[in-house]
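Good morning C.,

I know you're traveling, so I'll keep this short. The sequence:
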Amino acid sequence: MSGLRKEKSAKLKYLLGIALADDLKERSFDEIKVTDLCGKVKISKVTFFKYFFCKEELLRYYFRVWCLELGVDLYKNPKNGIEGIHYVFLKSMESLRKRPSFLPELFSYQMRDNKLRAPFPLSKMERAMFNPDRELDKVEIKSLEQLLDSFALEAILNNKISSGNPKQVTQQLYSFLLGNITHASMYKRIPSTVEVKQRVDSFLEAYR
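The tokens, ready to paste straight into the viewer:
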């Protein structure tokens, strides 16, 4: 792909990602139509499906962008161990507050999908568009599970929690996170910062 085509592709995906993010603030994912997104970006549905074979894949793409935002934030404001675990839970709740259907619909799609798909890639151009600070080009993009894995391992190494099986801690933490997201989404109630931290600390008591 030529440089010009790469730039055009990056810009189109960037604009679609922004359009979806904006719409998710006001509408549920089900209410957002591909036609609406195409109208905002001024492309045809045929062009849309060249880049995303279904609307849910755009959701997966935006999740990657959101994870980049978390990576940039953590690069500028590092967290460690239990503080980092709190951060992942708080950011997930913040996301629910801003875009209620984003994470629940993403996880629902991943559960229905019969294929284990690799994370949606972001090109250097796309990263630069979403993250203009070029100094942060090499920020590692981690999923929520990967972030929890890193922070849980730090907590174990710092003797804040104890476990003979760090991977098991991560898996249970991630399941706990999904449960909290599902519960908050179902009952339309986002817990406060204090409540989120109390829930996490109570969960971690089993490992102290």
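Safe travels,
E.
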